[in-house]
From TrEMBL:
Protein name listed in UniProt: Glutaminyl-peptide cyclotransferase
UniProt keyword annotation of Signal present: yes
Source domain of life: Bacteria
Coiled-coil region(s): none
Species whose genome carries this gene: Streptomyces xantholiticus
Record keywords: Signal
Length: 277
């Protein structure tokens, strides 16, 4: 094991004082130790995206939910009269698409077994679908604004957002509330939580109207990492595109797909520590 260049307790003290420690060459282990110490002390790890690949994306898709299950990519789009549910083989191929009739406004999605839940924004319902065909199976009442949605498989619970600082836990069959937690970063509430992605006990959340993604400990609501995803689109693409909104973990890897509303591209990325500045 490489010797730590800065002891963990010293790194924590430097972070508390707002000083960025210098680790020197070969100090990756020390940086990981400092990040762990910072998290224990309530600090938020600062990360950025490293782009691995650029993929096409429908520039007419007002993306509200993005998820990968097995070898299938699912996408929910919004706007009244333009909302849809889509699926396609991961890596390309024909797309299956079904429309949501007006006045439904499509929102977050997640796969649960052989079915898929799709929320609506302010319509007061959620739609359960066949995950293979996307055919509607039933509608259930949903007494909240529908924003983000993901499924924690090991805990067998859904996690939902409604644009506030709160994550709500729900039964995966009835959507009944089973609990909730407030999301905070260094003691401050984080508002506008939007599209969600569950990875074990961690929930990744897009923050609406920003290029930030929060990494959240769903058990406590504490933000353990803040990811800066700015700069994915070029200056010439920005005027025709809306906000970042779409995050899907690539199974079996540390990679994610990111896109946004009306974006012409989707990005395969990893999250890496931000360089000290």
């Amino acid at each position: 094991m490489r010797r730590l260049l800065v002891p963990v307790f010293m790194a924590a003290a430097l972070l508390t004082a707002g000083v960025a420690p210098s680790y020197g060459p070969g100090g990756e282990a020390a940086r990981r130790g400092a990040n762990a110490a910072g998290r224990l002390a309530g600090h938020v790890e600062r990360l950025e995206v490293r782009v691995l690949d650029v993929l096409p994306h429908d520039p007419q898709a007002f993306t509200q939910g993005l998820e990968i299950s097995g070898r299938t990519l699912y996408e929910s789009t919004g706007l009244v009269g333009r909302s849809s549910m889509r699926s396609s083989p991961l890596g390309g191929g024909p797309t299956t698409r079904v429309e949501l009739p007006a006045p439904l406004f499509g929102e977050g999605i997640t796969v649960v077994g052989s079915t898929l839940w799709q929320l609506t924004w302010r319509n007061g319902i959620a739609v359960r679908r066949d995950a293979r065909t996307l055919a509607e199976l039933r509608r259930v009442p949903y007494r909240d604004e529908g924003w983000g949605l993901c499924h924690q498989r090991k805990r067998d619970r859904l996690v939902t957002s409604n644009g506030s600082s709160r994550l709500t836990f729900r039964d995966p069959e009835s959507l009944a509330k089973t609990g909730e937690v407030e999301v905070t970063a260094e003691g401050r509430a984080v508002m506008h939580l939007n599209e969600l992605e569950c990875v074990g006990d961690i929930v990744y959340a897009n923050v609406l109207f920003s290029d930030r993604i929060m990494r959240i400990d769903a058990n406590t609501g504490a933000v353990t990492g803040e990811i800066d995803a700015a700069g994915l689109l070029g200056a010439e693409e920005r005027p025709r595109s809306a906000v970042l909104n779409g995050i899907a973990a690539v199974p079996g890897t540390d990679q994610f797909l990111l896109t946004g509303k009306l974006w012409p591209k989707m990005f395969r990325v990893t999250f890496v520590p931000r360089a000290w500045s």
